[in-house]
Amino acid sequence: MEEVVETQEPALPPLDPTLAPVLMFYCGRGGADPEEEGDVGSARLVYSIPKRQLLLAGEVDLLFDDVNWITPQGWMLTLDPATRSTSLRDPFTSRAIALPPDTGGLLAGSDETTCVISTPTPADPSCVVLVIHLTNPVLCYCRPGGTRWLRHEYRPELLVTDDHLDRDKIIHAVANHTTGASGRFHTCWSDKVATLEFSPAAPEPTVLSATGIVNMTTPPACFCLERTLVESCGELFGVVFWGTALDGNNFEVLRVLVEKLEWSSGAWVKVGDLGSNRVFFISEDQFGASLPADEFGFKENCIYFCNNYDKGLYVYDMEQGTTAMHNPGIEIPDSLGPILLMPAA
C-alpha cells in the first residue's frame, strides 16, 4: 500500500473545532423551504451540541451539495466535479487526505449514495473508503494512498433469508445501516448481520456474508425502529428505539435499548452502559457514532439522537432511564430535521 498523504490543497471553510459535534440546519426565510424560495434569504445554521449555542454559518454552503459525503468518523469525502479528484477532509480543520482520482466516473452524487470509512483514521493501513448506492447493488471503494477507485456489484438476492425480505430491502439495509469497525464493514437486517471485508491482495471485496443473530424480543404494543449500528472502541453496538407512531412522520420514543454483538454466541446482548467514558450520537437515516465523553464535555452513558422531521435534540441517560429534549433555537422550524456532523479523529 502506498503512503497516505496529507495534502496542502485548499480545504472546505473550516468550522471552529470547539463547536464539535454539531447539528446543521438549512433554513429558508421565516421557516420556509429554501428550495421553494430559490435560496433567497436562506441561512445555514450550526448548533454546537457541547456548547448549546446556535450560530449563523454562511461559510458552509459546500456541505449541502451533492459532491460531499458526511461520514460517522467526521471525515468528509469530497469530489471535485471538474477534475474528478477526491479527498477526505476535516471540516473543523484544514486537514485533507488525498484519495485516488475518480477517473472512471464511478461515483454518483451524495444524493444517490452514502459513504462509510472502515477505520476511525485514514492513516490506518486497513482503511477503506466505501461509497454505497442507495437503490442499486453497487459499491465503489478505494484506499487512502491507493491509485484508483474500484466498482463492485453484489447480488442481494443471495442474501434474502425469509419471506419478509426482498431484493430492495437488502439494498436498503446495505445502503442505510452499514458501519465500519476494525477495518471491516457490517450491516444488519431482521435477524442477520452481514460483513464485508476488503483484502489488499484481492481485486474484489469478500462477498457479503450473513450471520444469523438472536434478536431481543420487542415489548407488546410498541413500534420498533430499525436498529442503528454504532462502532465504539472496536466493538459493535446496536441501538433500538421503541415507541408509538404519532403520525406519518413523528415517532414518540418510549424506550431505548442498547445491545452489544457477541460474535462468539451469535447474539445481541443487552447492556447497561456504553463502556467506560463513552457517549453515542444517532441521526435518523444518517448514522450512529461514538465519542469519548470527557474529551468533549459530555456525561458518559448518554445517547444523543435526532429525527428527520424534528429539530429537537434528544438525550437519553442510561443511568437515569430518562430522556430530555434540547431546543436548538426558536429560529428553526419545528419540523426541520438536522444534519449531524462529528469531529474527525
Would you give an account of this structure?
The chain is mainly beta and 345 residues long. Helices cover 4% and strands 40% of the residues. The protein contains two helices and 26 strands. It has helices spanning 167-176, 293-296, and strands at residues 22-27, 43-48, 53-56, 68-70, 76-79, 86-89, 96-99, 113-117, 129-133, 138-142, 150-153, 179-181, 184-189, 192-197, 209-212, 223-224, 228-232, 235-245, 251-262, 267-270, 278-283, 287-292, 302-307, 310-317, 322-326, 339-341. The strands form six sheets. Strands 16, 17, 18, 19 and 20 form a five-stranded antiparallel β-sheet that branches. It has a five-stranded mixed β-sheet with strand order 22-21-23-24-25. Strand 6 (86-89) and strand 7 form a beta hairpin. The longest helix has 10 residues, at 167-176. The radius of gyration is 20 Å and the shape is globular.
